[in-house]
Request: fold
Amino acid sequence: MAKEDPVRYVCVNCGFSTVTRTGKCPLCGQWGTLEAAEPAGARSDKYGAKAEVVSSVSVTPPKRLSSGIHEVDRVLGGGLVPGGVVLIGGQPGIGKSTLLLQVGGQVASRGTSALYISGEESAAQVALRAARLGVSSEKLLLYCGGDLEDALSNVRSQNAGLFILDSVQAVRAPNETGWPGTPNQVRAAAQLAVDVARAANVPAVLVGHITKDGRLAGPMLLEHMVDTVLTFSGEGYSSHRMLRAMKNRYGNTDELGIFEMRENGLAAVEDKSGLYWNRSDTAVPGVAMTIALEGSTPLVAEIQTLASPTAFPYPKRTSRGMDLNRFQLLAAVLEKRAGIPCGGCDLYLNVAGGLSIQDPSADLAACVSLASALKDKPLRSECCYLGEVGLAGEVRPVTRVMARLKEAERLGLKRAVVSGKERGEFWGPKEFTGMKIQRVDNLSEALSDVF
Ligand code: TYD
Ligand code: MG
Reply:
């Protein structure tokens, strides 16, 4: 069945246009001014529009509004874009409201009015948090309540240069049935907020809750309606939070922002690699370093393994921070291809600092770390290992090797072991002055240097 175009409504007073019929225009605040502009099915007027030559379309880079928090700006690709809508998703209690109140406070303190719409908390609760965060600008405006139409009419009337909607699940969209938070309501609420942001040409940030399995609650459509989708995440036991872009029409999705939740709000963590790496002078058997990619941010990761002889016929293998099957496979490859038996030992692997590594570039580090644990001999200190290990024991290239090597050099590592198949034209002696790059083709070669 062909789907009809939705009817659009246009305000006869201010020209605001939306697909959600509202009694009160959310832009100019007038009542009963929205009229159907385009009845469903009446589409003849749309035909005849000419396609353009791409290169002839004039482009001016959007003038961005800084969020006032450097890490947030970086993840956004340089700041908020007028008329652009950001959706930030994260589990309850992770710190979304805290982060956005800080953003609102920063923007306001730099002279742009920011409107914070809270559908979840009372004014007293938000004000209490603002006090805790030290946010006290006169230009930070607060609207508490679930009536979205009414809330959004403050954008124009209060001349806000940014609005934050916390959250799309907690507000009621006009003329839509169902409780707030139901798919229809969420879609309509988000659409209205997007329409207002576009019409008023101000940036907007919408908060979205996510379900247990990490998806944004409500319709999938939500991600398509907005320009940027950010996720805010962290482990329960840690005070660190990660901000990432999953989609960004105004920048790339490579940047990672790390924050620490403190007593007075979120503080950016500048030295990210330091989080997962204990600089220690004494070399311990079973510890190898690699440079993993989080999104595309290179982070140093310390892989630790322990091997202890077992009397049982089925030795134990456990792994934290790396897939257990992968670890078992690597142990088998090490035994078969490099001749280091591990059958009689219980094996434990841990990635320090709670980092979880998905990409196979940590294979080589896991293998040498295991060999070092089994032989009870420490590895070279200040050395990192970058390579995927195949079933034949071959060491394969990794993605974005240059970015990883640059990070290793920045941290002051003295040596990096990489695959001999890495394209070598990138690094000559000029490229890395303080670090030796060693190329190996297989596991035995990587280990012969050590043992
Ligand atoms: P919150 O921003 O309300 O999370 P969300 O909006 O994602 O549900 O904050 C959640 C937690 O952060 C809360 O349990 C208390 C803690 N917190 C701090 O540790 N320091 C602070 O300065 C603030 C405001 C909150
Ligand atoms: Mg909240």
About this structure: The pocket of thymidine-5'-diphosphate (ligand 1) is lined by residues 90, 92-98, 129, 132-133, 261, 263-265 (CB under 6 Å). The first helix runs from residue 70 to 76.
